[in-house]
Amino acid sequence: MKRIIVTGGAGFIGSHICERLIAAGHEVLCVDNFFTGRRVNVQALFEHPSFELMRHDVTFPLYIETDQIYNLACPASPVHYQFDPVQTTKTSVHGAINMLGLAKRTKSRILQASTSEVYGDPTIHPQVESYWGNVNPIGPRACYDEGKRCAETLFFDYYRQHNLAIRVARIFNTYGPRMLPNDGRVVSNFIVQALKGDDITIYGEGQQTRSFCFVDDLVGGLIKLMEGDVTGPINLGNPVENTILELAEKVLQLTKSKSKLVKKPLPQDDPKQRQPNISLAKEKLGWQPTVPLEEGLNRTIHYFRQQLGA
Ligand code: NAD
Ligand code: UDP
Fold it and tell me: Can you list the positions of beta strands (E) in the chain?
């Protein structure tokens, strides 16, 4: 049994990690400032004697004993990370410094939830870990992209300078139950719009691509990365690529919704294509996603039906 901190643990992915770690018999401290996370996401764990929830902002230092840290604190949806971009950069950078300092003092292993956004609007396809990326450093996405890039820099400097046991996962678009209905990301937007009978908002022509990974698959990969001996950075995502238009049509079909597709302006710097090359994860972690898009969408639709009473 280990003492494990999950920052951002009341958020979408974090809450699934907390659940999985508790089920595996660990002691879990969920640290969250509830910016996009919710108590209800971890409510089922409140009664568990090995689970603890702490309201704390990772931009401030934290002194506590621990064996492992999953550092997920950071809003992940463009709508939310652009709401207060300065706080987003602080969360990534100061948050990383504080959590790395904590890991150094306690000699803990620490995993960073990095992102495919470090590749920006990629000029090579699919994206491999050796690609350095194509990021606009002054655009509206930069607070997130550059914040996450700087966090990776810090992780690797602590690794080289202090011999810290780091793990860096580059997570690609992940979806599933416990995304917020107003999260703003494409899967939750389309499902909520379809269930309410609202228009489905396609940004641009919908020809941009993403590759969607179901949360259960991703969490399995993160835990394998933490437990294994690979430092990373390592891509974790589902390599099956879809256009946004294809996703919209799939959601309409699965929800049997009569919602109409409407085109909206494409946000600035929106990446045109994104697909992980997961050869490294397959080879080094023996990991690959197993949940097909249709099954993952059905499970997510089921969740949102319950949430919305639809
Ligand atoms: P989320 O918004 O649901 O979760 C983020 C959590 O961090 C929330 O609970 C939020 O309240 C918390 N948080 C934000 N700022 C904080 C702060 N200063 N101090 C403490 N807590 C803070 O998003 P998610 O999809 O669960 O993403 C989790 C992590 O995974 C993020 O770091 C994100 O960048 C990364 N990631 C996610 C995806 C994805 O597709 N979901 C893709 C790439 C990377
Ligand atoms: N998108 C869309 N309609 C929406 C929300 C998003 O067409 O209601 C598009 C968005 O422009 C992007 C893709 O879907 O091309 C994925 O967007 P998301 O915000 O989910 O994640 P990210 O852009 O960070 O991959």
Answer: 3-7, 27-32, 51-55, 68-71, 109-115, 166-171, 174-175, 200-203, 209-211, 213-214, 234-236, 241-243, 261-264
